[in-house]
Amino acid sequence: MPNEEAASTLLQSRPSAAENATATFRLFVEQGPDVGKEFRLDGTQPSRVLIGTSPACEFRLTDRQISRRHAAIDVTPEGMRLTDLGSTNGTWANGMCVFDVRLFGGDSVRVGDNILRVEVIGAPTPHPVPMAMRFGRIIGASPEMRRLYPLCERLSSSDVPVVIEGETGTGKELLAESIHEESRRAEGPFIVFDCTTVAANLLESTLFGHERGAFTGAVAARRGVFELAHGGTLLIDEIGELDAALQAKLLRAIERSEVQRVGAEKFLRVDVRVMAATRRDLDKEVQAGRFRDDLFYRLAVARIELPPLRQRRGDVHVLGRFFWEQLGGAGVPLPEDLLRRFEEYAWPGNVRELHNAIARRIALGDLALLETGRAQAAADEAEAAPVGDVIRETLAMDLTFPAARQRVTSAFERAYVERVLAKHNGNVVRAAAASGIARRYFYVIKSRQDKQDKP
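Now predict its structure.
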């Protein structure tokens, strides 16, 4: 990797983050089908804790009115953060339907038919954040990333399947490769199978291989990705896109460590560690019947959720300087005004977008600013177009006035909420304040749009 030594020195020279003093919280189900269940968290968890009925949830409940992945909780120095995850029946805190809220103890939370009591059972205690600022080739000095590194180290010493979740561009493939490189399989191959880049009629043969003459065009036998990854690691990228018909065969291959080439009679033994990456919510895919629950259970033995860049405090600064050194800008300092603009931006494309922005600035210099301005104007125009299209489409439908007004208003609310949230880095409180409307009304609009997005 170019300029690795200089970039490493840059990272090590940054001051370590202060210890976070967080209270210990207890969630206790005091009423409902799961009465008596409890969960404690104190800010040492590597990622946010999921509440729901899915096996992937750390606080697993059985109430059928609760979604598979209903809500998430995380402890910060500012209190316990509770976030609804687009649940079917909503999350309620102190009698209000909430999307994202901070609780401080003595609160009542309702999920489904369960009433949970939130209690503080310990005074704020400093919890040392791991000192490491990277794991393998994954770089990040934020507390959100540094809490993940011990979990990554433990997973590197095992062979269990891992599901890596996160938005596009957060570094899921790089994390999988880093886990592989730190594992006992490091000398073996690391193979990536991207479910979105292979034609549907070639998925099975790409996964499992084929014999000569198995189908038209099969002029020679070919190994599939399982055979290619023998002795190493196979990452199935965007597994949520995998055709349902192949999911059963994939499950068999993982459970039995054997594959059958297309057109073959025999099964071949393979020694492969399987990891999966997805930007989709697999729990919702299972609930909608698009993803097999038994395959999900088999894969989600361990789970890592990579946070988006907008939630990684201070990492835009760290990564911006690292990429600047890595991509050839070492002779010239990274302009401070550019870095300030980067830190104010929401980065919907995450780390990948930041990398490309740095590369563009190094290649084009000040011309990159002109290109960025044009790109932003084009994005604004594209963002405005769908609302105009909805108006035209609605007028063509000859609806009654109330029905037409409702349809157009819903489209406007969606576009407005998405834009203002992106502008304020996903912070609902600041977005509501900037909107000039009551926070409660903003929550109502956001909740309504989230429910419309569900399959």
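The chain has a mean pLDDT of 83.
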